[in-house]
Write a structure and sequence with these properties.
Blueprint (H helix, E strand, L loop, with lengths): L7 H12 L3 H14 L4 E7 L5 E6 L6 H7 L11 H4 L11 H7 L2 E7 L6 E7 L4 E7 L4 E7 L6 H5 L4 H18 L4 E6 L2 E6 L9 H8 L1 H5 L1 E8 L2 E8 L11 E5 L2 E3 L2 H11 L11 E6 L5 E2 L10 E2 L2 H25 L12 E2 L12 H7 L16 E2 L4 E7 H4 L24 H11 L8 H8 L20 H4 L6 E6 L3 E6 L2 E6 H13 L9 E11 L2 H9 L1 H6 L3 E5 L2 E8 L7 H13 L7 H16 L8 H14 L2 H11 L1 E3 L2 H9 L1
Length: 671
């Protein structure tokens, strides 16, 4: 047979096989066009599940008469004009195929009027060549698209449509997801003349949880945990359900990338990993998450229906999502276990919680503190005690991504399933008084300097005060002072004030961070660091000299858990150590190659290892935002785990500066 160019209608019908799967596919394309047009109100009318009529009306910018004829042509769009636009897409549509494909399998009419035009015009395509006819019409500013008799000219496609109820269910679910992606748009849905859904727009300062509750239900909101994480040009916000709100099916998993509905395998894998230790095998997570990334770092043109995307930094995005989910669940579990509101430090209305016994679990410092207080009410005679906890209606979890890179996994993540929900009576007055006595730090008896500092503490106006919560309690309060001492406050946003012995000390948090990273890398000088394979190996271009350098120092890199495989003119990063999991490998590997090039080949392997340990610690220590008290406490706690004995004392002498407050105290006493 001879090769022929297909007629326009046939070509569009073939394209419709991918674009128009069912009536819900048509609604998706039309509503996304309305959103791209800047609409703040979208009305969707459906008849007979969409097979008879689909009408989408909006109050967007509209289409001019001159553009109406092109609107129904293939590959005609106003959203991109060059390859640069394609590489940084922010609009929901961009291919220019939807209207042409839909019009080829239905009777489609588009009526529109822009604000600068006095009259409205209507366009429809007909005939073998899909010729577009335009005629005057009456219409307010905006656009209306009517799709009548879907698949009327393709009986095979129409035969595979489900019942009207089923097809409308798909449309309803689609609009629920779109309503979650844009709280600033009012969306109305009617079926066979009856109003079915009405999602009112949320004002700028309104509460988006009202719409979330309307779509996801009261139970989701009751167990929702707020996520708000930012890292360079990435952001993850939204809500995840604690394990109490887990579902028996995956029908409440909503994820959006740059406000685009998404069912991406990489994103789902990261979320599943974050929930891995919190859910049973027959439970499913519930979440509404919004991922915002630089449009240059994501390719949305990889799936016919745009349900999947491809991230340029796939591993970084995966770990970013995983870390946010995992840390959020762990923090919520820890706060609930301790029965304390992390924001206010107050005892919550309690429910009994009995942790599961574990032969390998580490001693709980909070439990040790309770056991050390002889008059603590409710304490069992066997020496243990019953801690109480409950969850708020909506918990909140916020932290900077730079803090998550050094936060280890908690032992509380697997204890959700052991928490019954039976309510108990609130704590008595005696219990509250005993708890406050337990949580109040005791001053050193007989120390005049300590008493004087307590009297003058109100003059330290630049210090961030210590909240009286379980987060600030350590075992040293019960067993005596040890380690680096106690973190008291953060001064001028970057300096940590600590008490140790009979004095006060000040240390730069940036140096503490570097010291902590050195401690985390110390095992490399012995048995070596444990390597962690990357979900997606990173590829980097490299010169022949750089590839040879990697081969030359393969043993040194392996000692630090870094496995790089040269392949032609490329380097494939297969695995890294845990401290580097959150690092930007695209920027780190070239710097590492430069460092290896500067090593003295005459030095021993031991010298090279020591040099690389120091260099890596500096690379991992980045200039941070203002340091919070929780970050300072965590950093000091990590250092005390990594360094002991003489090494800890040498570090104190090197980094800590003692404050001479004698003259200050004397001046205060004379005033």
């Amino acid at each position: 047979m001879a090769i022929e160019i297909l007629p326009a209608r046939l070509a569009n019908q073939i394209a419709a096989g991918e674009v128009v799967e069912r009536p819900a596919s048509v609604v998706k394309e039309l509503v996304e066009n309305s959103i791209d047009a800047g609409a703040t109100r979208i009305d969707v009318d459906i008849e007979k599940g969409g097979s008879k009529l689909i009408r989408v009306r909006d109050n967007g910018c509209g289409i001019s008469k001159a553009d109406l004829q092109l609107a129904l042509s293939r590959h005609a769009t106003s959203k991109i004009h060059s390859l640069d636009d394609l590489e940084a897409i922010m609009s929901l549509g961009f291919r220019g195929e939807a209207l042409a494909s839909v019009s080829s399998v239905s009777r489609l009419t588009i009526t529109s009027r822009p604000a600068e035009q006095q009259e409205a015009w209507s366009a429809f395509a007909e005939g073998r060549e899909m010729a577009v006819n335009v005629k005057p019409a009456a219409h307010p500013v905006g656009c209306t698209v009517e799709v009548v008799d879907l698949f009327f000219n393709t009986p095979a496609r129409r035969k595979f449509l489900r019942t009207d109820k089923t097809e409308f269910g798909h449309i309803d679910e689609l609009l629920r997801r779109i309503a979650l992606s844009r709280f600033d748009i009012t969306i109305n849905l009617r079926h066979n003349g009856t109003q079915v859904r009405q999602y009112r727009r949320v004002p700028e300062n309104g509460d988006p949880l009202r719409r979330v509750k309307a779509i996801c239900g009261q139970k989701f909101v009751e167990h929702a945990l707020r996520i708000d994480l930012h890292h360079h040009d990435m952001a993850l916000t939204g809500w995840i359900c604690t394990p109490e709100g887990a579902r028996q099916q995956n029908d409440m998993q909503h994820c959006f990338v740059n406000q685009r509905m998404m069912k991406d395998k990489l994103i789902n894998h990261a979320i599943r990993q974050g929930y891995e230790q919190s859910l049973a095998h027959d439970q499913y997570a519930a979440f509404v998450l919004y991922i915002d990334v630089d449009p240059h770092q994501v390719d949305v043109n990889v799936h016919p229906a745009k349900h999947e995307v491809r991230f340029h930094q796939a591993r970084l995005v995966h770990d970013f999502i995983y870390q946010a989910i995992y840390d959020g669940l762990q923090q919520a579990a820890l706060s609930a276990e301790n029965g304390v509101d992390p924001d206010t430090g107050e005892i919550r209305e309690a429910v009994t919680y009995q942790p599961r016994a574990s032969a390998t679990a580490k001693p709980n410092p909070y439990q040790q503190a309770v056991d050390a207080f002889p008059d603590y009410p409710g304490k069992r005679e066997g020496g243990g005690s019953s801690l109480t906890t409950s969850s708020r209606d909506t918990a909140s979890y916020k932290h900077d991504a730079s803090d998550s890179s050094h936060r280890g996994r908690s032992s509380h993540g697997s204890e959700w399933a052991g928490r019954p929900a039976a309510p108990s009576s609130p704590p008595s007055k005696q219990a509250t008084q005993a708890y406050q006595a337990l949580m109040t730090p005791q001053s050193d008896a007989g120390t005049d300097l300590g008493g004087a500092m307590q009297r003058s503490a109100t003059t330290l106006s630049h210090f961030e005060s210590i909240p009286a919560t379980l987060d600030t309690v350590s075992t040293t309060e019960c067993t005596g002072q040890s380690g680096l001492g106690k973190v008291l406050a953060v001064v001028e946003q970057h300096y940590v004030l600590m008490s140790w012995g009979e004095g006060l000390w000040l240390v730069d948090h940036h140096r503490l961070e570097c010291w902590r990273h050195q401690g985390a890398l110390q095992p490399a000088l012995g048995e070596g660091l444990v390597t962690q394979p990357l979900l997606i190996p990173q590829r980097l271009s490299a010169s022949e000299e750089e590839c040879q350098r990697v081969i030359q120092y393969q043993a040194l890199l392996g000692q630090f858990g870094i496995h790089i495989r040269p392949k032609g003119q490329q380097l494939m990063v297969m695995s890294v150590c845990q401290p580097l999991r959150q690092h930007n490998l695209q920027a780190f590997i070239p710097a590492l190659l430069d460092f290896l090039g500067g090593l003295d080949p005459d030095q021993s392997h031991t010298d090279h290892s020591a040099s690389m340990c120091s260099w890596l610690a500096k690379q991992l220590t980045v200039a941070s935002d203002p340091v919070s008290l929780a970050q300072a406490v965590q950093t000091v706690s990590d250092i005390e785990q990594y360094w002991q004995g003489d090494a800890l004392e040498k570090g104190r002498q090197r980094y800590f500066k003692r404050l001479d407050l004698t003259s200050v105290i004397e001046a205060l006493q004379h005033d």
